[in-house]
Write a structure and sequence with these properties.
Helix content of chain A: 10-25%
Strand content of chain B: under 5%
CATH superfamily of the largest domain in chain A: P-loop containing nucleotide triphosphate hydrolases
CATH class of the largest domain in chain A: Alpha Beta
Largest interface: B-C, 99 and 93 residues
Order of helices and strands of chain A: HEEEHEEEHHHEHEHEEHHEEEEEEEEEE
CATH superfamily of chain B: MetI-like
Number of helices of chain A: 9
Radius of gyration of chain B: 23 Å
Number of strands of chain A: 20
Largest sheet of chain A: 6 strands, mixed
Shape of chain B: globular
CATH class of chain B: Mainly Alpha
Strand order of the largest sheet of chain A: 6-7-8-3-9-10
CATH architecture of the largest domain in chain A: 3-Layer(aba) Sandwich
Structural class of chain B: mainly alpha
Oligomer: heterotrimer
CATH architecture of chain B: Orthogonal Bundle
Distance between the termini of chain B: 29 Å
Structural class of chain A: alpha+beta
Chains: A alpha+beta (381), B mainly alpha (271), C mainly alpha (305)
Chain lengths: 381, 271, 305
């Protein structure tokens, strides 16, 4: 399988191990409105078996509503949801082959850990012995065997998260839905748990669908991300492609830092686009394979780390003179804000290689910035 | 800051004294030898003995306990249904009017409730032949009507504070709605149900006015006996009765309080 | 078309409407319908029979149906100063005792809300505890305290404050004491619920901006607790308007309150129609405060959300 993957996917921390033709979840033109407000607006997505899929977006973008539609807590106003080819749009939550890990974990406060995990299995007709085996298996999977008899209020946040996970996995669902699974944990624990979740997902091969507002979390964990905005899907792609090749201005701005330049297409030949920007002197050269019409209004997105400080004699096509106005030291890197003649500010980052070295650049210093034609993208939306 | 604290402290001490002095005076004088309740003439338990021989009073007490228990059990069912409707089915047809109807009995002057129910029972008897005459049944029907309002308030606040995702989680794990209710919702709101039952019981035990309107010649509740005795002036037997009732309530509330306090403490420790 | 698939959902809908319908019907039958009977009987005439009132709809032997509406009771209530005085008396007692309850209850509710967290529940329990003991017996306790040779007079005489016993029992003062005593928890609880939810950082912000404690209270705490004050106030005001036991046991024979008058008309004079008219008038008078209460309850609920 590995040889069929592109270089982008190889580099992603959570590779897409799925067989792309095997679609487990099909969301077909799902729209949901509450009164007159649209929470989901004509969303269509196909999710593959074994994927770790993230719904990413700011609060109120409709990602949680979409997840609740998948779980069956909300019925879409229109559209269909198919799991393994079966239309489950009107199937109540308790009959769906789907389980959910809630943001609040929703552990039953009056039941012990073991009863919480066994709850889902008790709703099925399986023997007590098998049930006990499954519960024990789940507890060892998330390493909480010692907590079996405890009540939820006697557990730490991390332990509760594990119990919630074990409970949701106990029924071997076709889909595991995770609603901000790490939101209730502190930062340190969150990072550790991210990798545990990825490992668990790869070991079990269950399809995970996660809702998160945290771009870093989505980037680290997912094989693919659907970036949502105001009830619509802005872009669906691998973390790397979403970062490097954002499809829209919103997508570019939501994930990571970005410089956006407004401009007009001057020419487009052999994947080479020349763009005239009011804010920048000269014309920008960008590599772009999609057809663009001359005279079209576009934006050019440029990531700060793609910018280099050029020595005076370099003859790179994209170059601009600027003056450093602001420096933000972040530890690993520093972010510089440089102002060009038009007043437009360009953000760029430089790694802080030496601990005790003076800042390589200082305030009011004049610099020449440059970047490759293939390091920036053209956005038409 | 200090000045206001002293003011608050004094106000609270005086407030609590105001609430408790009458109760302690009742208890103290129940052990008074003298018939004149407020003149102390020595310790005695004779009024308790007299109480035990007061058959009319004991019969009334038994009737009251019976009525209160049946009332509380019915009120808890109706009140819980109403609370479920108001919290879980908010916005559905009929819940708005239910909300108004369930608040009104809380403040309705008892004379109006009593009189209006009596008129209804009289009319029902002439039209339907039921309830035949007035007595235990009519008292229970009347008490359930105002008790359920109190139960609704208590259960409603507990339901509203309950994490809704608990029920969703149960459903997500395959439990059907009825099963969710009995396995998750009910155990979680059970403290409110117990509190609601006890409150409904107390309200019924306590009611003089409504019972006086809707009861018939056969049914005399404890408050009616107490009232007719108290109207004639203070009586040491009533002090003894009051002391017994206060002790029962105090012990029950104390136990309940300790349990909730512990739970609360555990919960706050958790966060 | 109903498919088998939709059946569970349909059943869910059915059970949903049942959850609403059962308490709804109960209250409609035993709470709303009786009011219509009050209106009906208030238009009847008393008669010596069982039940002791005339039927509004009468059929004579020839099948002629006549509807007799008798407005005499309402005329009487309007014309006879006794009834008007009773309404004014009730209004006065309810109004004054609501204010007294506030004066006693507000500092207590505020004190509990500002107490350390672990003390709040025990302090609240102490407020509720008397409420669980019999109302009748609590009123009775005040008879023993307030009467001429009662606890209060004995104490004041022993202290040398007074030479001869004060007449408190069977006066309006006794009614006020009894009402405040009995209804205090109804005011403290909603007020506490409002006060405890107030954001403490608002006070800190006010202090930070140079506001002194008393002014903080006046400009920050008090305005924000208005919904709680009004909701709690109505919880006292409305039932006291129709109070019977307290004026009957603690007030003198000349204490005029509508609840007591209604009781007398019904039990002593056996005039059911007149008692019904009084109830109807009281009911109408209480609609406005009831709406106010609902309004402020909802307001304070919204404030919490």
């Amino acid at each position: 399988m590995t040889d069929t993957r592109s270089a982008d996917e190889l580099a992603s921390s959570a590779p897409d191990t799925s067989n792309n033709r095997d679609i487990i979840l099909q969301i077909d033109k799902v729209t949901k409105h509450f009164d007159s407000a649209y929470a989901c607006d004509d969303i269509s997505l196909s999710i593959h078996r074994g994927e770790f899929f993230s719904l990413l977006g700011a609060s109120g973008c409709g990602k949680t509503t979409l997840l609740r539609i998948l779980a069956g807590f909300e019925t879409p106003t229109s559209g269909r949801v198919l799991i393994d080819g079966v239309d489950v749009t009107n199937v109540p939550p308790y009959q769906r082959p789907v389980n959910m890990m809630f943001q609040s974990f929703a552990l039953f406060p009056h039941m012990s850990v073991i009863d919480n995990i066994a709850f889902g299995l008790k709703q099925e007709a399986i023997s007590k012995a098998e049930r006990n085996d499954r519960v024990r298996e789940m507890m060892s999977l998330v390493q909480i065997e010692k907590l079996a008899g405890r009540k939820p209020h006697q557990l730490s946040g991390g332990q509760r998260q594990r119990v919630a996970l074990a409970r949701a996995l106990a029924k071997h669902p076709k889909l595991l839905l995770l609603d901000e699974p790490l939101g209730a944990l502190d930062k340190k624990l969150r990072e550790q748990t991210q990798f545990e979740l990825i490992n668990l997902q790869q070991r079990l091969g269950i399809t995970f669908i996660m809702v998160t507002h945290d771009q870093e979390e989505a980037m680290t964990m997912s094989s693919r991300i659907a970036l949502m905005h105001e009830g619509r899907v802005e872009q669906v792609d691998t973390p790397r492609r979403i970062y490097e090749f954002p499809a829209t201005r919103y997508a570019a701005g939501f994930i990571g830092l970005v410089n956006l330049f407004q401009g007009v297409v001057v020419s487009h030949e052999n994947d080479q686009v020349l763009i005239e920007c009011e804010e920048l002197p000269g014309q920008l050269l960008v590599h772009h394979s999609q057809p663009l019409a001359v005279g079209m209004d576009v934006s050019v997105a440029l990531r700060p780390e793609k910018i280099r400080v050029l020595p005076g004699n370099d003859n790179q096509p994209n170059r601009v003179n600027a003056v450093i106005k602001d420096i933000a030291y972040l530890g690993d890197v520093s972010i510089y804000h440089a102002e060009v003649a038009s007043g437009k500010r360009i953000k760029f980052t430089l790694p802080n290689v030496q601990a005790l070295a003076e800042q390589p650049l200082t305030w009011e210093q004049e610099v020449t910035l440059g970047w490759q034609g293939d390091s920036c993208g053209v956005l038409t939306l | 800051m200090r000045k206001r604290s002293t003011f608050l402290l004094t106000a609270m001490i005086m407030g609590y004294a105001f609430l408790y002095i009458p109760i302690f005076s009742l208890v103290a004088y129940s052990f008074n030898e003298s018939r004149l309740v407020t003149v102390w003439s020595g310790f005695s338990t004779k009024w308790y003995a007299a109480l035990l021989e007061n058959d009319a009073l004991l019969d009334a007490a038994w009737l009251s306990i019976k009525v209160a228990a049946i009332n509380a059990s019915c009120a808890i069912v109706l009140g819980t249904l109403a609370a479920l409707a108001l919290v879980k089915l908010k916005g559905k047809r009929g819940t708005r009017s239910l909300g108004v109807m369930v608040t009104a009995p809380l403040v309705m002057p008892e004379v109006i409730t009593g009189l209006s129910l009596l008129l209804l029972f009289v009319a029902m008897e002439t039209m339907l032949g039921w309830p035949a005459g007035r007595g235990q049944t009519t008292i229970i029907l009347a008490h359930v009507t105002f008790s359920m309002a109190y139960v609704t308030v208590i259960v409603q606040s507990r339901l509203a504070n309950m994490d809704q995702s608990l029920e969703e989680a149960a459903m997500d794990l395959g439990a059907k709605p009825l099963k969710v209710f009995f396995a998750i919702t009910l155990p979680i709101i059970s403290p409110a149900l117990i509190a609601g039952w006890l409150l409904a019981f107390t309200l019924s035990m306590d009611d003089l006015v409504v019972a006086n309107f809707v009861s018939g010649p056969g049914a005399t509740t404890l408050p009616m006996v107490v009232y007719s005795s108290v109207r004639l002036g203070v009586s040491p037997q009533i002090n003894a009765l009051a002391t017994i009732m206060i002790s029962v309530v105090a012990i029950a509330v104390l136990i309940g309080g300790i349990i909730t306090w512990r739970q609360e403490k555990r919960n706050t420790q958790r966060h | 078309m109903i498919t088998i698939r939709q059946l569970p959902q349909l059943l869910r809908k059915e059970s949903r409407s049942l959850i609403i319908a059962v308490p709804w019907l109960w209250l409609a039958l035993f709470f709303i319908l009786p009011f219509l009977y009050i209106l009906k009987i208030s238009l009847a005439e008393p008669q010596l029979a069982q039940p002791p009132y005339t039927d509004l709809i009468q059929t004579d032997g020839e099948g002629l149906v006549t509807v007799l509406l008798n407005f005499a009771n309402y005329m009487l209530i309007w014309e006879d100063s006794l009834y008007l005085d009773a309404f004014v008396g009730s209004l006065k007692v309810a109004g004054v005792s609501t204010i007294l309850c506030l004066l006693v209850g507000y500092p207590m509710a505020y004190g509990i809300a500002r107490a350390p967290v672990h003390m709040r529940l025990p302090l609240l329990m102490l407020i509720i505890l008397p409420f669980w003991t019999s109302f009748l017996i609590r009123v009775y306790a005040w008879m023993g305290i307030l009467k001429s040779n009662g606890l209060l007079n004995n104490m004041l005489m022993w202290l040398g404050v007074i030479d001869e016993p004060l007449d408190i029992l069977y006066t309006p003062i006794a009614i006020y004491i009894g009402v405040v005593y009995s209804y205090l928890p109804f005011l403290i609880l909603p007020l506490y619920a409002t006060l405890v939810k107030l954001d403490n950082t608002l006070l800190e912000a006010a202090a930070d901006l140079g506001c002194r404690p008393f002014k903080q209270f006046l400009t920050i705490t008090l305005p924000q607790s208005v919904p709680g004050i009004l909701a709690g106030g109505m919880l006292v005001f409305i039932p006291v308007m129709g109070e019977f036991v307290i004026p009957d046991l603690l007030g003198g024979p000349d204490s005029l309150m509508i609840g007591k008058l209604l009781w007398t008309e019904f039990f002593n004079n056996k005039d059911w129609p007149l008692a019904s008219s009084l109830a109807a008038v009281l009911l109408v008078a209480l609609i406005i405060p009831f709406m106010l209460m609902r309004h402020f309850e909802r307001k304070s609920e919204e404030g919490q959300a």
